[in-house]
Amino acid sequence: MTVCLQGGADAAWEAAAAVPDPEVPCVTVADLGILRWVRVEDGVAVAGVTPTYSGCPAVLAIELAVEAALRDAGFEARIERVLSPPWTTDWITEEGREKLRVYGIAPPVKSSGSIRSLFGEVTVACPKCGSSDTEKLSEFGSTACKAHYRCRACAEPFDYFKCI
After folding, report:
1. Cα–Cα distance, 164 to 159 (Å, whole number)
2. Most buried of 37, 76, 100, 135, CB within 10 angstroms?
3. Which of 81, 109, 129 is the last residue of a domain?
4. Is position 51 within any domain?
5. Taking Cα atoms as reference points, which of 131, 163, 150, 149 lies closest to residue 52?
6. What is the 8-class DSSP label of residue 120?
7. What is the pLDDT of residues 67-82, one digit of tens each?
8. In what order do the strands lie in the sheet with 105-106?
């Protein structure tokens, strides 16, 4: 991620980076790594945003929220959708992973480049009690990017943010 720190870009970055994800409000677009960069060009704050996946229904809402945050911070604003390279769960910050866990969502456990994470089963720890004695109930949870699990130790159901 590249952040230009001249001409007010630091303030623009801070405004855009604080936007919460509309589907998982415990994390910001910066925590998820979908806010790629913010730069100021001729007085206009331009933010690069990468969707989590091509069919993500929240893409437009995220772009509009980032644009509104930049305008609220006093900038003229423009959003650029950045599709290459595609977003990966590897871009979620450590702080973002911890926020997900505290919120009750198990963060991704493997690197997205791992063949096992893409096509095999992973051991997912319960975000409530930490037990690895969990079972997948459904490939899809509350959103397409999450799977639904249950902890056998504490019996709590929870979402797991799948590796992408």
Report:
1. 15
2. 100
3. 81
4. yes
5. 163
6. S
7. 999 999 999 999 999 9
8. 105-106, 157-161, 146-151, 134-138
Q: How far is CA 26 from CA 75, 76, 93, in A?
A: 25, 27, 13
| Nearest-10 crossing angle of helices 9-17, 59-72 | 140
Relative to beta strand 146-151, strand 105-106 is unpaired
Amino acid at 97: R
Output the six-digit token pair for 110.
Answer: 């493997």
Nearest to 22 by CA among 46, 1, 52, 54: 52
Q: Which of 46, 81, 116 is the last residue of a domain?
A: 81
> 45 in helix, strand or coil?
strand
- Is-contact 39 4, C-beta < 8 A? yes
What pLDDT was estimated at residue 119?
55
Residue 62 domain boundaries: 2-81
- Is residue 126 within 8 Å of residue 151, measured between CB atoms? yes
User: 136 forms bridges with which residues in the sheet?
Assistant: 149
CA distance 68 to 155: 41
**Residue 87 forms part of a structural domain:** no
CATH of the domain at 14: 3.30.300.130
pTM of the model: 0.84
Bridging pattern class, strands 2-3 and 35-41: parallel
